Amino acid sequence: MHYVSGKHLPRRTFLRGASASVALPLLDGMIPAGRTWRDPAAEADRTRLICIEEAMGTAGASVWGWEQNLYAPLTAGRDFKLPERHLLNPLIDRFRDYITVVSNTDCRMGDPYAAREIGGDHDRSSAVFLTQAHPKQTQGSDIFLGVSLDQVHAQRHGLDTPLPSLELCIEAPARGGACNYDYHCAYRHNISWAAPNKPLPALRDPRAVFERMFGAGDSAADRAQRTRTRGSLLDWIAEETARFKRSLAPVDRLAVDSYLQGVREIERRIQLVEARNSSGEERALPDAPAGVPDTWDEHMELMFDLQVLALRSEITRVISFKTGSDQSNASHPASGVDAGWHAVSHHGNHPDSIMQYLAINSYRLGAFGYLLEKLAETVEGDATLLEKTAIVHGSAMGDPNLHNHRRCPLLLMGKANGALEGNMHVATPEGTPMANVFLSVLHGIGHQDLKHFGDSTSKFPLSVPEKVTQASLG
């Protein structure tokens, strides 16, 4: 769709106050006047990118789970078929057209390269996922890895946004120093790397994320004062907001009101969490900041809402999100399994135990339906954010019972401005590096000149010829 409009506002329009700076979403008034307009956010180099690590692999990468197709669908190509029990069951009915399943890729950079590295798979996997590089074994400051997928995109196509990238996590990150098997903790707790020796720490506290996005006041004292007063961010920009709205057409005034109402609602929820966690009542997570909800589900939804807000306003185009730590024993009783996540991951290749792990995997993946729904509901120009976004979800570990890095799970969600077809199962040949798929993703979102990524050997096509569609995988 093309638009012809009148008044033109800069796309980078902010409402500013003494301790706040609020970027606005696309408005009709930002469309250039008097000429045909094409949405620049629909171009490959403006594609939003969310990279999500789900630690500890999947039930479907085990020997028995692979035979049962608990991860890889029954058929390759378009309109793939699933068995009755499958990881994707919580998402498939609503979002099939936005899901590309990639099966059978390896993350060999997670393997031990020397005898002294054997056993350190949990300490390498998170670092390997988005870099597809092998971590240097060290507990000193001489860490060395590679540049991560998200940062490749941010460093080329994110520098014109207020935040080139935004790094988030759910569980408490380590602050440095030594972890196990002579590895620095930076490898275990960071998935985003701006340079081989520069991990980017992630934010866990929704309050800290909110302040990172909007708390760009004149001074730290101003920002601290706003937080102490417990007033709304929007109170600090009220005068500027009123003045700005007077210059807008009615449709844009409504759009601004709706957007700011969304900002206020997220802020209100953060305040409620902080008040509840500061009441003196016993907490499930006593060591967590007050802004961190005590339940995984509430924490995930709040972080998802912040991500959608950041993408909608183009505060950033690039987000990484670590949803849990290796060896985390978080429990999800609503999945039907009371035991901890890591404990169940050591299933011994016993079918009943593998099915318990599948239940946990599916429950955790099902949480992403909230994010996909929010992106699908957010219209920008002539498309939704789900159509303009590439979501990379996976793990550098395959079968957690063996701590191996074969048949690693990888889901691509969204349409990435046409780079991803959706409703697709891409079954790769044995031994295909996950980096080959990442290279193809990068080509599709504006990095066509990139020759290699990580340990890639070539790019792997993310579409399947019609002749193999519905082909049985045996």
What fraction of residues sit in β-strands?
5-15%
Helix and strand run:
EEEHEHEHHEHEEHHHHHEHHHEEHEEEH
Strand order across the largest sheet = 4-14-5-13-12-3-9-6
Measure the end-to-end span: 43 Å
Measured as a percent range, the helix fraction is 25-40%
Please mark out the parts with pLDDT under 50 across 5 or more consecutive residues, or reply none.
Answer: 1-6, 467-472
Can you offer a commentary on this structure?
The protein is α/β, with parallel strands linked by helices and 474 residues long. It is built from 15 helices and 14 strands. The strands form 4 sheets. The protein has an 8-stranded mixed sheet, sandwiched between helices. Helix 6 runs parallel beside helix 10. The radius of gyration is 22 Å and the shape is globular. The two termini are 43 Å apart. The model is unreliable at 1-6 and 467-472 (pLDDT under 50).
List the helices and strands and how they pair.
Blueprint: E1 14-17, E2 20-23, E3 48-53, H1 63-67, E4 77-78, H2 89-95, E5 99-106, H3 121-131, H4 149-157, E6 166-169, H5 185-189, E7 193-195, E8 198-199, H6 206-214, H7 220-229, H8 238-246, H9 250-277, H10 296-312, E9 318-322, H11 341-345, H12 351-366, H13 368-377, E10 379-380, E11 383-384, H14 385-388, E12 389-394, E13 408-413, E14 424-433, H15 434-444
Helix pairs in contact: 6-10, 9-10, 10-13
